[in-house]
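Sequence design from tokenized structure. All designs in this work follow the same two-part layout: the structure record, then the generated sequence. An example of the structure record is given first.
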């Protein structure tokens, strides 16, 4: 028997740092990935998909947003989709789950698990699902505790599904919301405990696993995780499950810290490095660059052309923190002519930069913009 384990779809999520076009693409892909999960289940021969909470980003989505994931799952009538609430979409009296039931919007192949009690998952394999259901955003009690004594038939394959934080996993000494005992699978005789809340794949132990979000949703420098689903194969109620991860995400998020630029070669290398993430599909890249260094006048213009303009237009999103400073000297003033108001203004700004003090950084930025604007004027003049 096989299942697909996924979580944290967060349909309707917004990203404040992207423009409208990129936001629309990111939100659409959080729906499109449902189809890829369904295709994965079919290809792997998995009749069941477990979604371990946070199907929705908010408790009050619009009616359109509410129904969209249901319609994507409806397309896979041969797959049973099992959903539980998470902390973003807890089962509150007027929340998303009540609305879905009231509006008769749940397809026959989608099972909403809204009570903490064993449910038969697959009669052929004597498999039972033990869901832990959040009825508020945060609780200090372990909702998986009931699983220890939850009755199932003799020899049943017991599969738990929950949304929360495993106690003792990187958060020792902290008070935790939605805690889950790290040894719950062993205590409750679970063949597998499918978890949601952590957005990257994490195998806590042989039977306790976070699947992570199927579409990456944040920047990271060391492999922030996400963009995957887990296929779980069972050989019996006591045999360790066999896991395999499968990429489902379309977008790649990368953060580059402490990028120091001092020459045109550095600029070209940075552009190449970012594009190399997905050379044939740069429009699937979201990059966050923390940039510093000092560049001469011509190299600064090159930076603006290649990075701030060309690369930004190629990517789904380019987020820039910081910027290279202008390394300009008296000799560079000749670029502005031998006299005139523009050269006089530049000379005054350069003098202020060299003098230091509180206004030096403002003068530096003004001088930088002056050189760049002058360059634009020269290039635009026939």
């Amino acid at each position: 028997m096989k299942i697909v384990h996924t979580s944290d779809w967060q349909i309707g999520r917004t990203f404040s740092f992207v423009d409208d076009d990129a936001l629309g693409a990111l939100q659409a892909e959080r729906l499109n990935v449902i189809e890829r999960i369904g295709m994965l289940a079919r290809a792997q021969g998995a009749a069941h998909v477990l979604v371990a909470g946070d199907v929705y980003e908010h408790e009050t989505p619009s009616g359109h947003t509410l129904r969209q994931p249901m319609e994507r799952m409806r397309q896979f009538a041969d797959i049973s989709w099992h959903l539980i609430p998470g902390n973003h979409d807890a089962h509150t009296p007027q929340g998303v789950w009540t609305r879905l039931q009231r509006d008769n919007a749940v397809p026959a192949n989608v099972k909403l698990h809204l009570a903490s009690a064993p449910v038969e998952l697959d009669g052929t394999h004597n498999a039972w699902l033990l869901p832990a259901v959040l009825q508020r955003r945060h609780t200090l009690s372990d909702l998986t505790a009931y699983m220890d004594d939850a009755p199932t038939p003799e020899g049943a394959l017991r599969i738990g599904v929950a949304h929360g934080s495993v106690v003792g996993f990187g958060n020792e000494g902290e008070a935790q919301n939605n805690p889950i005992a790290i040894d719950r699978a062993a205590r409750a005789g679970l063949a597998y405990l499918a978890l949601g809340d952590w957005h990257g794949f994490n195998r806590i132990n042989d039977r306790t696993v976070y699947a992570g979000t199927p579409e990456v949703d944040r920047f990271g420098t060391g492999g922030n995780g996400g963009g995957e689903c887990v296929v779980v194969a069972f050989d019996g109620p006591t045999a360790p499950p066999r896991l395999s991860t499968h990429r489902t995400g379309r977008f790649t998020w990368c953060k580059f810290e402490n990028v120091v630029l001092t020459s045109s070669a550095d600029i070209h290398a940075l552009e190449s490095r970012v594009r190399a993430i997905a050379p044939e599909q740069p429009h699937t890249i979201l990059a966050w660059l923390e940039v510093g260094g000092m560049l001469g006048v011509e190299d600064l213009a090159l930076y603006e052309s290649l990075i701030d303009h060309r690369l930004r237009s190629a990517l789904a999103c380019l987020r820039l923190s910081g910027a290279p400073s202008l390394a300009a000297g008296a000799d560079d003033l000749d670029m502005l002519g031998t006299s005139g108001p523009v050269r006089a203004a530049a000379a005054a700004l350069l003098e202020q930069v060299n003098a230091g003090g509180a206004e030096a950084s403002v003068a530096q930025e003004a001088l930088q913009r002056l050189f760049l604007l002058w360059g634009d004027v020269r290039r635009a003049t026939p």
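The mean pLDDT is 89. We note this feature because it recurs in several other targets discussed in the main text.
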